[in-house]
Amino acid sequence: MSNVYLIDHPLVQHKLTLMRRKDASTNTFRTLLNELSSLMAYEVTRDMPLQEVEVETPLETMTGKVIDGKKLVFVSILRAGNGILEGMLNVVPGARVGHVGLYRDPKTLEPVEYYFKMPQEMEERDIVIVDPMLATGNSAIAAVNRLKKLRPKSIKFVCLLTCPEGIAALQKAHPDVAIYTAAIDRQLNEHGYILPGLGDAGDRIFGTK
Ligand code: URA
């Protein structure tokens, strides 16, 4: 699978396994998700461009490196994407944040946008879309369709978990969008849940079930 990055760092795998446990409390789930999101932010920002700057240390002047260009944008797909933001912002505190809200029309089953708020100057920014689960791929595809209209420099997609169906759908629609994930599970069930998965990510993050 091209353009899919499996983050197999032992700490990521360990935390993900603890999150899958059905008896993990809301607090535990959220804490692990924060920690895991920070580790994933580290991986997804690995190729950020740098520029050289002069820096005066207490002893000498030298050439150091800092991140180049406009601030990165994390785009959360509501509502579960919000569970990933805090951990990512711990690692990239200057990043901007956008939100996309989508629901599925019960008749057409097509995603319908109910909220869309982005920072300015998106054409000069790199985007990292966050959503814990890439399942059918419908929301991810709709979010990328919408974001591409703003002509950003690049778009990456970060999730905790995905499945072959979700990857195939997103790659077919948007082969240029790199997918970063901590696991590729076996399959999607008839209700659109990932198996073995971790259940409903939004409910587990917000304690709504
Ligand atoms: N969304 C979830 O929260 N869980 C799944 O398994 C699939 C989509």
Summarize the structure.
The protein has helices spanning 10-20, 26-44, 82-91, 138-148, 164-173, 201-206, and strands at 4-6, 50-56, 61-67, 73-77, 96-104, 111-117, 126-130, 133-134, 154-162, 178-184, 187-188, 194-195.
Structure in words:
- The chain is built from six helices and twelve strands.
- The model has no long low-confidence stretch (mean pLDDT 95).
- Strand 4 (73-77), helix 3 and strand 5 form a beta-alpha-beta unit.
- By secondary structure, the protein is an alpha/beta fold.
- Strands 1, 4, 5, 6, 7, 8, 9 and 10 form an eight-stranded mixed β-sheet that branches. A two-stranded antiparallel sheet has the order 2-3.
- The chain has one domain (4-206): Rossmann fold (3-Layer(aba) Sandwich).
- Bound molecules: uracil.
- Uracil is lined by residues 80, 133, 135, 192-194, 197, 200-202.
- Uracil binds next to helix 6.
Structural class: alpha/beta
Overall structural domain count: 1
CATH architecture, please? 3-Layer(aba) Sandwich
Instruction: Assign the CATH topology.
Output: Rossmann fold
Shape: globular
Please identify the top-level CATH class. Alpha Beta
- In quaternary terms, these chains amount to single chain
Biggest beta-sheet profile? 8 strands, mixed
Number of strands: 12
What tags apply to this protein structure?
alpha/beta; two-stranded antiparallel sheet; eight-stranded mixed beta sheet; 209 residues; binds uracil; Rossmann fold
